[in-house]
Amino acid sequence: MTIRFVLLVNKQGQTRLAQYYEYLTIEERRALEGEIVRKCLARPDNQCSFVEHRNYKVIYRRYASLFFLVGVDGEENELAILEFIHCVVETMDRYFGNVCELDIMFHLEKAHFMLEEMVMNGCVVETNKQNILHPIQLMDKTT
Amino acid sequence: MGTRLRDMIRSIRACKTAAEERGVVAKECAILRNAFKESDPDYRHRNVAKLMFIHMLGYPTHFGQMECIKSIAAPSFPEKRIGYLGLMLLLDERQEVLMLVTNSMKNDLGHTNQFIVGLALCALGNICTAEMARDLAPEVEKLLHSTNSYVRKKAALCSVRIVRKVPDLVENLMVPATGLLTDKHHGVLVAGVKLCTELCQTSEVAIEHFRKHVNTMVRVLKNLVISGYAPEYDVSGITDPFLQIRLLRLLRLLGNGDADISDTMSDVLAQVATNIEGNKNAGNAILYECVQTIMAIEAIAGLRVLAINILGRFLANRDNNIRYVALNTLVKVVSIDTQAVQRHRTTVVECVKDSDISIRRRALELVCALVNETNVKVLTKELVDYLKVTDPDFKGDLTARIAGLVQKFAPNKQWYIDQIILLMVEAGKYVTSDVTRSLVVVISNANALQGYTVRTLYRVFQAWDGQESFAQVALWCIGEYGDLLVSSENKLEGEEPLTVTESDIVEIVENALKDSRASSATVAFALTALLKLSIRLPNSADRIKALILEHKGSLVLELQQRAIEFGSILTKHNDLKGALVERMPVLDEARYYANNAMGIDGQQTTDIEALEPHANGHVRQPNAIEKPTAAAAAAAANLIDLLSFTDEPTTLSNSSGNALLDLLGGGPMGDANSASSPGGGDMFLDLLSSDGPAPLATTAAVPLEGLLDVEPIANTSLGNSSLNGGTPKGPPAIVDPIANISFGNLSLNGGTAKGPPAVVDPFADLTSTAMPAPASAPGLPSIIAMQTNGLKISFDFTKAVDAPKATVIKASYSNLSSNIYTDFVLQAAVPKFMQLQLEPATSGILSANSSNLVTQVIKLTNNMHGQKALVMKLRVSYKVNGNNVLEQGQVNNFPAGL
């Protein structure tokens, strides 16, 4: 019951952020990302947000031109992961102010910092936006 | 100096093709490498950030690992921050570089700044190895008691990883983890509950421990459910759904299998199930978790009803996500409460036809769990109808499932045959060979249905649409039962009349033979069918012969061989061919399923196993040897199944010793009276009798008398003994089994005990019921096989009365010198008509002036017993005072009668 990876992908299928909580080689990652993106992006809106792929269950949600994909193992609560994705987006919104693809691209490390505060070793650890952003904002102030 | 991060990203974005992008990245990587070489600390932060970006794009970045480690050791926070991030992204626990970082991490764990401690904990929690976990566990444990909630929560999750890597640390962590359950901070709570869950999953002791604290968890959950608006952790009106879900999951682990604990938590579960509103995703997530918990613990009936009702509501929901989740849960629930799930059957069947493949998959799994004897016909019809319209992706799954259901629940054979034929017609290429094979077994057993089946197949085959599996079954049946097509024997009531002439039959086979869609395997089936038809349809014999001979020049070796062999049977061996292609004996159904059921259905296996011995009037020995025998036989029988089904007369020479023994010994025995031969005995017999002229039953069965019950033992021990790989074609191999059986018996004894075989026979009870225990033949004198200046080797012989060909030799080694011999190795060689097996010697060291201290068992089988005497060459090598000594000799003085 852990998160295996978090992926942010744009409408063209280009990866914009990738965080894995288990080791995959570069080739494996590229292949996996390609397969999953192809599968998820092809699904119409009215279909459910869960796709089973290999031994992963991918839970995805689309925000404008960005797809958030989270890969989990079989035992995870799918609806909770959807809620988690929403929480990630809200957090990024609060930090960047209406987040868009470019914000994440040009501030990749910031996006990672946020994710790092929220998820550790595949488990959700913090969902309060203020707590998540506090260390990052502190760092911004000092530099 | 390099470009700014921003510029690099821009230039990468500007790339129009992948090649262009690769070029830009390669250039950047080169600049980065140079920068790392110069190790300019001012730009390290920026460089690591660039590296991360390149890594995200999927390019190798290993050259930057050291740079991350340097950043971590840097004093400034931003640099550390990016260093740790790089560490987590670019490195993995398999890299030795991680060793270097352990010390920096240890320092950071003891830092006064909470954020630096948090960083180290986070990195440790994401990538630590077992070694690091062991090294740093004390520090992390201390941090669990920190006064700072930011540190506590990270330490808790870090401990989760540590426990996963080093499970024996569970007991150290149980008490601190319990402390976290009363924490006020939600982040700490959520991490603490996760840690408790992890501990419970790792150890039984932890479950017992946390059961004592169930009241605490219940209280926390209750507060969350009834508390009013809590802005910090509110998600659409619900307080911290993530924490609630974690708690429900922990309660599930604790309540499972313990009625008292389940009772303690039932109140709060009922509260969650009734109070949480299901109109928002967050609420549904909690309800979903709650239902799973209720179904997993020992809940009272009322609570279960509540849970099932929630699932019913979910299933009726218009949101696909909710329906998916409902199906997913019902699959888990179906084993607990089938009745409750059956009520939703129609809805579930509808879901199999949903446009969404995720939902279809779940629904299909559920439908299969719901099928039973009473509804199998209705549900199968639904599924088969759907099979016609479904997309190709899904057909494989669906076909396999339908086949499984039909096999498991078929009310009668005719229905079974009909359904599988239908399945092959609709989804021919997705039907696996297992399915077709068991169909053939069933047909072969259903005497009354053979006519009906072959006529049905014929009818459908006229409109063949290239389905491989169907063609093969149809061809096999037409070959086997072609005469029933013409005569219309065994007509069932209500069966449509069918008039077929001999030439029609030959024509349909010919069509298949010439069809471009037919694979070479199918053509091989067709050729064999033709051979059989040449007897069944005497008037068309010439045409058949011509058809077979057309393939004489086939480029496929297999087909060419068949054509030529069959051709020569038809032209030269007219007297043989009648016996050769007569109808296959009935394939043994029970055994076939016993061998195959393992994978399909555990229940079925045991049933059949229970039935089988009775059917044969033979009581199984409750002996440990059973299992390996069955396993070995299953492997062998599979091979045989394959052979008998494909009607393959050659290619046996490579089969393993086991299979061969089964093939040779098992056949006649199975027929004679014993069920202890675990493979399908009839099938072997049939294989052989259809294969060559040798009348097996007479040659092999007679000398086997009295040995039958030893046979399972022989089977198990024979695995590594060489069996010469003889083909079953000629008589020499057929005479073999007796020798091999007793040989196997002896080698098993010798393998388990060092003493004389007959005495410590672990299966004495087994053998003695059927026959006297193998006794040594009296009066075999010991011989001195070899004597040199410093070494004497003497042989003692043991021989079982019932196995004249086998001899067990005990070689004793004596050191006649006053020097110690080390690394003593004896090698022996025998002529080709004998088989030799050397057991390891009791020691490789012969102490000075010792006699007969070291012994070694040598097993011999003389296949020309009575015609040729034993001879053996020996080669001995050992070390004296560090010098290698090599001695050779020939043993010619074996006593007569070996």
TrEMBL record, chain A:
GO biological process, one term: intracellular protein transport
Record keywords: Membrane, Protein transport, Transport
Localization in the cell: Endomembrane system
GO cellular component: AP-4 adaptor complex; trans-Golgi network
InterPro entries noted in UniProt: AP_complex_ssu, AP_mu_sigma_su, Longin-like_dom_sf
Family annotation (PANTHER family): ADAPTOR COMPLEXES SMALL SUBUNIT FAMILY
Family note: Belongs to the adaptor complexes small subunit family.
Name under which the protein is recorded: AP complex subunit sigma
Automatic annotation (TrEMBL), chain B:
Pfam families hit by this protein: Adaptin_N (PF01602), Alpha_adaptinC2 (PF02883)
GO molecular function: clathrin adaptor activity
Compartment list: Cytoplasmic vesicle membrane; Golgi apparatus
InterPro entries: Adaptor_Complx_Large_Subunit, AP1_complex_gsu, ARM-like, ARM-type_fold, Clathrin/coatomer_adapt-like_N, Clathrin_a/b/g-adaptin_app_Ig, Clathrin_app_Ig-like_sf, GAE_dom
GO biological process: Golgi to vacuole transport; intracellular protein transport
Domain GAE: start-end pairs: 778-895
Main location: membrane
Domain of life from the UniProt record: Eukaryota
Keyword Membrane: yes
GO cellular component: AP-1 adaptor complex
Keywords linked to the UniProt accession: Cytoplasmic vesicle, Golgi apparatus, Membrane, Protein transport, Transport
Signal peptide: none
Family in the record: Belongs to the adaptor complexes large subunit family.
Protein name: AP-1 complex subunit gamma
Organism: Physcomitrium patens (Spreading-leaved earth moss)
Lineage: Eukaryota, Viridiplantae, Streptophyta, Embryophyta, Bryophyta
Gene name of this polypeptide: LOC112278059
